[in-house]
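Why do we care about 3D structure at all? Because function follows from shape, and shape follows, mostly, from sequence. That is the central idea of this module. The next example makes it concrete: a single protein chain, its amino acid sequence, and then its structure expressed as tokens.
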Amino acid sequence: MTTMPIFRWLLLFILVAVTMLMAFLPYMPYYVAGQLWLISFIAWPLAVVDLVYALILLRKGRRAGYFLLLALLLCLPCLVRYVPFGIFSSDDKSSSDLRIISWNVSNYSLSEEILHNSTDFIRSKNADIVCLQERPHNNLLRIDSIRAAFADYPYMVVNIREDEVLNLAVISKYPIVKAYTQYFHNSFNKFLSVEIDVEGRHVRLYNVHLQTTNRMHDANGVAEGGSEYDILTKNAIERNRQAEILKGAKEADKRKIAIKRTDQKEKEKENFTIICGDFNDIRTSYAYRTLASGMDDACQCGGKRWLNGSFKPLGGVVKIDHILCSENIKVTSYESIDTEWSDHFMQYASFDMR
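And the structure:
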């Protein structure tokens, strides 16, 4: 066998192996997937290389190219999450009965002017529910100031323990029936779970902030150490673990509804679920795919642009903030809105639950 065929087979083996790892990433233990975090970032370049090399092999009459196409086919469910199907349909906001804004406010830069200007903009979007991540500590910007800014939103809940950073809030025009806060171990990261009565239909909403990608202090004020790669790996593992906890909480809440309600129509009224917030991860990642399992992505279903980014420091093309909804909710529109008030884009989505 000549050197060239050996190289081709070696390249084929590597491409198939890495592509299969990408396909089966969400089925691995979270700590194993965390070690492979880099694979999710090369998913699209890998898919392009797979397709080109498979076509080259097939053109040369080598059936081995079909193995690469099969591996690529297994990756399609995660790759298709980037396709904005909203470009094939017109917005139908007239049929929307719920509008949500999810936004990492970056502490409002500790500015009441930014708080009021951004609130005026949110009001102009006619949002029914507003989910805030990285709300400033009460000592730096009073919760009462936020309540006053959202004076026409009568319902508001915040996390029960006021932290130095990464505080959350859910603000609603509709009654908030129940709420609880889940803190992740040894971390400021958390999610806020609320049950909202939307004209007789109960929506379970999870507002979340998952582990960041870079160097941070833990809840005890201890700074992370190690190389940048080690820190990224450690944080990916922690982010995956947090996603598993949130998924478990969502499934537990769903089981409680099933036990509490025996009538099928009553179950359907309470079986609406929305997860939104700062996931700190992209759509091919383990954390996202764990939370998005069995859910629709508002950006995918209602988005109009291919590059619906959400994080400005990464050029505004990388999306780490997401809105997911249960499949019984129809997404009628989605926008990723660039503003001057935060380093994160504002996520807006409208839904039809009828």
